[in-house]
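Minutes, project check-in
Item: structure for the 318-residue chain
Input as provided by the requester:
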Amino acid sequence: MKLFTKILKMDNTSLNSKSFKPSGRVVIIGAGLVGSTTAYSLLSKEYINEVLLLDINQELETSQVMDLEDSTILFNSTIKTSSYSDIKNNDIVVITAGCNQKDGESRLDLKKKNEGIVLDICSNLNKIKKDIIVLMVTNPVDYLTHIAINSLKLPRGRVFGSGTYLDSLRLRLAISQDLKVSVNDVEAIVLGEHGDSSVPIFTKVLIKAKPLSSYYTNNLDKKLEEFTNIVRDKAYNIIKGKNATYYGISTVISNIIEAIVLNKDSVIPLSYYTTIKGYENDIIGIMCMVNGNGVVNVDYKVSDEELELIVKSLNVIY
């Protein structure tokens, strides 16, 4: 059996022939907890000029902007209420609108609730005909990114989702806490669904440049199961205690936007096309390079067993 199987190849068709020049302006559609927390996070960033908040609930939108603008006194950026007509070429649009995951619900339980909301947003974005980048955050993020990619009239690579970036950070944190090392010493990636079938890529985990097996010589299998459950269950535990998650995901969104605006060529797991045979048109958490033009997927190798789990994850979503 081969140790590694290539599941992703560099997708040059995703490289947009027309260069995108990020304006430093971000439009957040959805003024709830995730949207407003993301807005707050972005306002403190030097690379952000302006944040626009847009919500179907105009009273909520206005109230959030009034509260958030008090924080801009010490920042260089501004925040405003907005409508779709305010969106301009080269803006980054973040979609956070939708029903929240409730205690006992999985992300996939939100499919029917949030698909209509996303389709309506895409219809409005198509009407304005602007050259933009769209980052999907609303759950189930992989499924709804698929809906958005197929609905929006934008070049390949300009629409993608937050994917398993947060899951990967959760895995790094869990390992660092268990080994009592700095999270900066841990390299770890999660692919697949941002949800219950997520796939930690344990064959690629490194702690201070050493594999997991170097640290867990007698109980490796038990630890792999433990870390997998931590990653998959953390959102449920947070929601049970406080009804929603928003700090972690808002940090992830800010980092993705930083990679776009500053053209950083960051390689992170995002919701985008897989190149797995038979699933080329499906969207799932996969390794991508993100920069000022959007995203492309990149070469990444996993074990045969991990590849099988990613395929299972695809089948769960679609």
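Outcome recorded: The longest helix spans residues 220-242.
No further action items on this chain.
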